[in-house]
TrEMBL record:
The protein, known as: Phospholipid/cholesterol/gamma-HCH transport system ATP-binding protein
UniProt key word Endoplasmic reticulum: no
InterPro entries, per the entry: AAA+_ATPase (IPR003593), ABC_transporter-like_ATP-bd (IPR003439), ABC_transporter-like_CS (IPR017871), P-loop_NTPase (IPR027417)
Lineage: Bacteria, Pseudomonadati, Pseudomonadota, Alphaproteobacteria, Hyphomicrobiales
Pfam families for the chain: ABC_tran (PF00005)
Coiled coil: none
Keyword field: ATP-binding, Nucleotide-binding, Transport
């Protein structure tokens, strides 16, 4: 196996129909003016899996993520979360759905004027009505859960390393005990050891909390080491989806050059040495 430690997966399919679909996108079309970015895209995500979502720069990965989160409008198609069509959900249902989703945006997006603990409490304040003491304890629990020391709670983002910022942002994404977390390039900007540690944390959370993970990534190491399944975005839809093995066997030109190109071969060599 290529790259970093292969902590969890041995190409075990979690997608064979025995697993609950947590998120389904059907024939989703998104356009900005005349420019169609996603064209009848369909995708399912299963409970407890780590799905890696890849595609060329500008292919529409962020647009799809934003569309799933309700931040972009669709032109056509349907998105169901936990079996509920988001377009048909009333305000209360939508709020309940939102509480089941955690999001880590690409650059961590912590509020710079708030401490780590206060950042983690932002979703709690938005959705829950809890006494401050309880919120403080809950936030500390999340901070420890992501492997940060307790004293990180009172620090501001500017006082943290890149890896600590990602962990703090993950703690915030986990604030409401979501069923699914969306991670947008979580290891970008981290050194290989920091990135490997982060991947390991994600796998551990999946294993211990039964979390479902949707991970947009360019990081081949992450794809090889922690993703159960990979979906490749191209030509405005999901071009190929499957296990690492499927990716390595694919003759789709972009998939081939991505997974069997120079960088992949370098990783393979590094892993063998
Ligand atoms: N609000 C918008 N208005 C107009 N065009 C947009 C908007 N948002 C995204 N796009 C266009 O949609 C296309 C897909 O962008 P997107 O950011 O989803 O790519 P990506 O796959 O996430 O790329 P990267 O890997 O570089 O982050 C791009 O051509 C982008 O310019």
């Amino acid at each position: 196996m290529l790259g970093r430690k292969n902590t969890i997966i041995e190409d075990a399919p979690r997608s064979n129909g025995e697993h609950e679909v947590v998120l389904s996108a059907r024939d989703v079309t998104v356009a900005f003016g005349d420019k169609v970015v996603l064209d009848k895209l369909s995708l399912d995500i299963y409970r407890g899996e780590i799905l890696g979502f890849v595609g060329a720069s500008g292919a529409g990965k962020s647009v799809l993520l934003r569309t799933i989160l309700g931040l972009n409008k669709k032109k056509a198609g349907a998105i169901k979360l936990f079996g509920i069509d988001v377009d048909k959900a009333n305000e209360l249902d939508r709020q309940r759905l939102d509480m089941r989703l955690g999001v880590l945006f690409q650059h961590g997006a912590l509020f710079s004027a708030l401490t780590v603990q206060e950042n983690v409490q932002v979703p709690m304040r938005e959705y829950l009505d809890l006494p401050k003491k309880l919120m403080d304890e809950l936030a500390l629990l999340k901070i420890e859960l992501v492997g940060l020391p307790r004293d990180a709670a009172v620090k501001f983002p500017s006082e943290l390393s890149g890896g600590m910022i990602k962990r703090a942002a993950l703690a915030r994404a986990l604030a409401l005990d979501p069923d699914i977390v969306f991670l947008d390039e979580p290891t970008s900007g981290l050194d290989p050891i920091g990135a490997a540690d982060f991947d390991e944390l994600v796998a551990k959370l999946r294993d211990t909390m039964g979390l479902t993970v949707y991970m947009v990534t360019h990081d081949l190491d992450s794809l090889f080491s922690v993703c159960d399944r990979i979906a490749v975005l191209g030509n405005k839809k999901v071009l190929v989806e499957g296990t690492v093995k499927d990716m390595l066997a694919s003759e789709e030109p972009w998939v081939k050059s991505y997974f069997r190109g120079k960088r992949a071969r370098q990783l393979d060599l590094a892993a063998r040495n």
